[in-house]
């Protein structure tokens, strides 16, 4: 069974025709062409597929594409504020070497964005709690923590 | 992924009718965090899913001092976890909610889905049973209310008949003289299913325990009540010696199995340790 789904992705209205058993993750990557969101495990364990739906982070692998009808989805492609400008988190991840193979990075960036939106000055414990659904097999997490704390400071400085 | 058809129910009556008309292999679909995983891992054969998220009235949360806390079938674990009332009055539920999966999973997973999956290791079940929660069940002919402690008939099995739908859960009010705790034990802190989960809810009157319920997760075919241990504790001051013998009794009452997460012996030992610790933590409310 196929269905037409109307929703917004990174602020832009979109329409896609999808099989009703397709995950939002597969639909974003294959129908919409946004391959920034990664598929690690496809069962909710790794967080590589994290997107923000109506303001809340979810695993795109554990949501059906048809459920996106009428909703607003943010992916890593929508993180940068302009074509040649990076989000402070993206910039900090590059400077701190917080990304090695990069497979976990899109999911972690979306989770970190949500964390800083809700809590501009997170403690290490807040970051650990916020990222507990995101697995990274390369970095050992230390550089990810450094990058998030540095981005938090820069965003704070930019506000004041 | 195996193919299945997707249906969006408009009302409870509609969902119930779809469940009976579409035949076997038709399942209600709430957050999908169990169902989609079971489909992908080929643990369950699914031909149709009936999405209940468009049914009105299932997303409410209410609290009053006589009835207690009631939440609908669509209320997510994450929403309840963040609710100040839950933090303040139900630290046991809050501990269970905050320990379930990840933030992403909790934003989708419903508490009702967690109980309907009826896993012996489900984290929300022990504290809800210890608190004496009730399940509201809809069928096309009537509504019934079942104590959660009588809802489960085996691993993955419940009293729900074909076409029945859980509409919500009511947790009795949290009295000022109540103490509550839920302790989850796993191999790591985050993203881990329970190896053992112990919930304790108790009432103290003038230094004496007037009531106590102990619920044990992941150590039996369903979540168990340690009723003999409870009986040993009622009417006592919960002194260390009595708590110790009751914890030993709880170890006898559980029926754990060995699996990839732990051996039966280890689980039994942990029931002893965690029962004592959970009682202590529940009493900290009065310290
Ligand atoms: C990565 C990951 C980690 C997890 N970690 C934990 C954990 O630490 N602890 C834990 O306890 N659980 C854990 N879970 C499982 C937990 O997410 C689920 O049990 C969840 O709570 C089920 O709710 P749902 O809304 O997603 O249900 P669904 O998957 O939609 O449904 C689950 C079952 O309940 C039935 N159902 C749903 N709603 C109703 C209703 N209203 N009436 C009757 N039947 C209904 C469905 O038909 C299905 O059989 C984890 C899951 C994932 C993917
Ligand atoms: S791909 Fe979705 S959590 Fe791993
Ligand atoms: S950078 Fe490789 S998994 Fe995180």
Automatic annotation (TrEMBL), chain A:
Entries under Pfam families matching the protein: Fer2 (PF00111), Fer2_2 (PF01799)
Start and end residues of each 2Fe-2S ferredoxin-type domain: 3-79
Presence of the UniProt keyword Iron-sulfur in the record: yes
Record-linked SUPFAM superfamilies: 2Fe-2S ferredoxin-like (SSF54292), CO dehydrogenase ISP C-domain like (SSF47741)
Transmembrane segments: none
EC category: oxidoreductase
Keywords: 2Fe-2S, Iron, Iron-sulfur, Metal-binding, Oxidoreductase
One GO MF term attached to the UniProt entry: metal ion binding
E.C. numbers: 1.2.7.4
Organism superkingdom: Bacteria
Signal peptide: none
PANTHER family: OXIDOREDUCTASE WITH IRON-SULFUR SUBUNIT, XANTHINE DEHYDROGENASE IRON-SULFUR-BINDING SUBUNIT XDHC-RELATED
Name of the molecule in the record: Carbon-monoxide dehydrogenase small subunit
UniProtKB/TrEMBL annotation, chain B:
A single MF term (Gene Ontology): anaerobic carbon-monoxide dehydrogenase activity
InterPro entries documented for this protein: CO_DH_flav_C, CO_DH_flav_C_dom_sf, Diverse_Substr_Oxidored, FAD-bd_PCMH, FAD-bd_PCMH-like_sf, FAD-bd_PCMH_sub1, FAD-bd_PCMH_sub2, Mopterin_DH_FAD-bd
Domain FAD-binding PCMH-type: start-end pairs: 1-176
Keyword Oxidoreductase: yes
Pfam families per UniProt: CO_deh_flav_C, FAD_binding_5
Keywords attached to this entry: FAD, Flavoprotein, Oxidoreductase
Highest taxon of source: Bacteria
Main enzyme class: oxidoreductase
EC number per UniProt: 1.2.7.4
Keyword Flavoprotein: yes
Protein name per Swiss-Prot or TrEMBL: Carbon-monoxide dehydrogenase medium subunit
Native source organism of the sequence: Shinella fusca
